[in-house]
Structure formats: C-alpha cells, structure tokens
Amino acid sequence: MPSARILIVEDERQIVDTLRDLFEQNGYETEVALNKQVAVTILQERKMDLAIISTMVQEIPGVEILHEVRKIIPNIPIIVMSNQKSKRLELSFLKAGANIFVVKPLESIFILRTIENLLKACLTPSVTKKTRAYSKNKK
Predict the structure, then answer these.
(1) Separation between Cα atoms, residue 94 and residue 58, nearest integer Å
(2) For the stretch 30-41, what's the b/e string if a residue is b when 16 or more beta carbons lie within 10 angstroms of its beta carbon?
(3) Taking a C-beta distance cutoff of 8 angstroms, is the pair 123, 8 a contact?
(4) 116 to each of 25, 41, 64, 96, 135, how far by Cα in Å?
(5) How does pLDDT run across 86-108, given as a tens digit for each residue?
(6) Separation in Å, CA 38 to CA 8, 31, 71
(7) What is the value of pTM for the model shown?
(8) What would be the CATH architecture of the domain defined by 5-138?
C-alpha cells in the first residue's frame, strides 16, 4: 500500500509527538493540527487519507471539528480518540460520522492495525458501501 497521509488533530503535545513518531516509523506521512483552523487549512491545501481527531481540541468539541472535516472531504475515514470511556460519547461521535472511537492511551499495534484496516476498507468499494449502509442503519 502506498504511503497514506494522516491528519492528527490534537492539542496535547506528548500525544502528538507519540503518534507522529509511530506513524512515520511505519511509513505514514503525518500533518498535525493543534486547533480547528489549522485542521481546516491543511485539509483545504493537502490531500489527506485519514484523520484522527481528539474529542476536545483547545476547548472546541471534536464533533464540531469532525463536521468541518466531513464538509471538506466527505468520505475521509475518521478515528476519534477520547480520554474517557463513555458509551454515550462514543455513540454521539459515531452518529456524527466517525468511523472508529478509541480510548486513550492508544496501544501502538492496535492503532496501526485499525488504520490499516480502515484504509483498506475505504479502498474497496463494495466494503465501503456495506460500511455506509451499516452506519445509516445504526442512526
């Protein structure tokens, strides 16, 4: 698989550094946005293959950022990461359009496999259609 470009939308510097190092060591290109405006600018100027968004970025709800990302690139796979394990929070993000919801701290092998599987699913048209249909039925 060619190198995918991942947008990391997170304002905790340690998490940003950890994720960027992990992804780049495994052949992914990364862009980092510490706030919503930078995320929007990156998405408007560069092709991104996947986005990882924190549930809160500089006091802005991640769901708001998720909606902005979807406006710019409607079919981009989105992983939302959270500090809290909450079914209600998870369901609200999945209904808003996230593909996957994960709880921090992220396990390296798990997040790499999740990204790989999500990118493969998005490159396979028949799987993508099934995923969209499943998401619509969940709402």
Answers:
(1) 21
(2) bbbbbebeebbe
(3) no
(4) 14, 25, 25, 22, 20
(5) 999 999 999 999 999 999 999 99
(6) 11, 10, 15
(7) 0.84
(8) 3-Layer(aba) Sandwich (3.40)
